[in-house]
Design a protein that fits this description.
The chain has three domains: 196 residues, FAD/NAD(P)-binding domain (3-Layer(bba) Sandwich); 98 residues, D-Amino Acid Oxidase, Chain A, domain 2 (2-Layer Sandwich), CATH 3.30.9; 54 residues, no CATH class. The relative contact order is 0.16. It has twelve helices and 19 strands. The protein is an alpha/beta fold. Helices cover 33% and strands 25% of the residues. The strands form four sheets. Strands 4, 5, 12, 13, 14, 15, 16, 17 and 19 form a nine-stranded mixed beta sheet that branches. A five-stranded parallel beta sheet has the order 7-2-1-11-18. The structure holds flavin-adenine dinucleotide (FAD). Flavin-adenine dinucleotide binds next to helix 1, strand 17 and helix 8.
Length: 441
């Protein structure tokens, strides 16, 4: 990879996408400045209101994090996070029944979102090329006179201070203003695709005896079309437990203590309610509402300025109940890294966005859409092929509650290691058929 000591890249936003992007850029640019609006590195930041809710870090993300920041998982465990094998120590309950457990050889670390972000940020800040500047709002992009090049960002409430850059990477999250800025400078409006899911979250922090988890580090009771309420319960640092409940299509969990517990009791399996029964509450339940998954098709734009790229939730913000966002950010940063390896310090936006779509966004967006479409109330096109895939995937998940090898196949797909098509493999489907046909009718 060609390294240019005098090159300067600016990243907007120090969320997971911005931090992973900074790591990718540090291999190519002599200076990388990450500009973050919030001035505190504390995880529960104003700019990230979702941070207090349970955040899975899928195994694909964990692997990328370890590749770029070797030993980060161990450091987190030393700080109080919990390590676990995804097949043995995480309890997955689908349609009311647990997936068969077994050692997968795939180890991950469970923590709160804020704790993970702090560790990622510390590792990024330790890179000699990178500076993270907090408490600075990027008010705009600096365009060349004809709008064809972005040559920096504008800081301060009135955008009067320019920070020059050879490359700007927007990782400012779902609320990114790049679509507006591009339109104002003659590039047209990026096409947006939305899938309305109306997911409501409520989260409470509790303290619970470790033995209530029977050795597990986390429990996921997954919502399914037959039981469209779900929850996650994670043992995190500080001897605390994050309990998140969610419902789709307007069926949102209440935030009063009694309503919260009743909602937990109404899930397809009692696992999370049992934890609440023996838990001591440490916080009131807090809500979050997520209206729709959103994808911005930058790869379809006819005109885009040089010197600017976008990644993370700013490109694609997914239904949170699949817990993909941070791992997805890491995958996108890997696509950025691969692109920089080819193009050096002068990336080509059209080639980058094509790669980003093919390598990261298309597969994950497709997977999320497919899962959402399994809920009859979600509006969207269901071709005969979609319906057939949904049927096969649904049967595979049921069979995974009876067969350990199928459970691992499902976990690899949930963890973004394999595409959902892996579940359609003839050998997998033969096993599904054999497993289900052994069941009494
Ligand atoms: C309720 C909920 C639950 C979720 N659960 C999970 C989960 O279990 N697992 C998972 O992986 N993902 C989960 N996600 C998704 C995850 O939170 C996001 O995908 C992830 O945070 C995306 O990271 P990002 O860096 O792109 O954006 P963000 O995390 O939103 O970070 C953007 C950053 O940019 C900063 N910023 C914004 N504008 C500016 C500006 N103009 N100038 C300077 N700085 C700016 C913000 O302050 C912020 O720090 C969940 C999301 C929600 C809503």
């Amino acid at each position: 990879m060609k390294f240019r000591a005098e090159g300067h890249a600016v990243v907007v936003g120090a969320g997971p996408a911005g931090l992973f992007a900074a790591r990718a850029l540090a291999d190519v640019f002599g200076r990388v400045t990450v500009v973050e609006r919030d001035d505190s590195a504390d995880g529960h930041r104003r700019g990230v209101p979702q941070s207090g809710h349970a955040h899975d870090f899928l195994i694909r993300g964990h692997q990328i994090a370890e590749q770029w920041f070797p030993g980060i998982g161990e450091e987190m465990v030393a700080g109080g996070a919990h390590a676990g094998d995804i097949g043995r120590d995480l309890r997955w309950v689908i349609a009311g029944r647990p997936l068969v457990k077994g050692e997968s050889g795939l180890s991950t670390v469970v923590s709160s979102r804020g704790f993970r972000e702090r560790h990622l940020r510390a590792r990024v800040e330790a890179l000699p090329q990178v500076t993270v500047v907090g408490g600075q709002d990027v008010a705009g992009l600096s365009f060349s006179g004809d709008g064809s090049v972005v040559d920096g960002v504008l800081l301060g409430s009135d955008g009067s201070r320019k920070l020059s850059a050879d490359l700007v990477v927007d990782a400012s999250g779902r609320g990114s203003r790049t679509p507006v800025w591009l339109e104002e400078h003659g590039h047209g409006r990026v096409e947006e695709e939305k899938l309305k899911v109306d997911v409501g979250y409520a989260t409470r922090i509790v303290r619970a005896p470790a033995d209530a988890f029977a050795g597990d580090v986390g429990i996921n009771v997954v919502a399914s079309p037959d039981s469209p309420r779900g929850g996650a319960c994670q043992r995190v640092e500080g001897d605390r437990v994050v309990v998140t409940l969610y419902g789709v299509l307007g069926d949102h969990p209440p935030t009063d203590a009694e309503g919260f517990n009743s909602f937990a009791k109404s899930l397809a399996a009692p696992d999370i309610y049992r934890i609440l029964e023996v838990a001591e509450p440490l916080s009131e339940p807090r809500r979050y509402r997520f209206p729709a998954s959103l994808r911005r098709h930058y790869e379809r734009m006819g005109s885009f300025p040089r010197g600017l790229l976008v990644l993370g939730d700013a490109v694609c913000s997914l239904n949170p109940r699949y817990g993909q966002g941070m791992a997805f950010s890491a995958m996108q940063a890997l696509a950025l890294h691969d692109h920089l390896r080819e193009e050096g310090e002068a990336p080509q936006p059209d080639a980058y966005f094509r790669r980003l779509a093919e390598q990261a966004v298309d597969p994950v967006w497709g997977m999320t859409l497919l899962s959402d479409l399994s809920f009859p109330g979600v509006q969207g096109e269901r071709t005969p092929e979609t319906l057939q895939v949904l049927e096969l995937v649904g049967r595979t998940q049921v069979a995974a509650t009876l067969d350990g090898s199928l459970a691992l196949s499902c976990l690899r797909v949930f963890g973004l290691l394999d595409p959902p098509t892996a579940l359609l493999d003839p050998a997998v489907q033969k096993r599904v058929h054999e497993t289900l046909s052994r069941q009494p009718a």
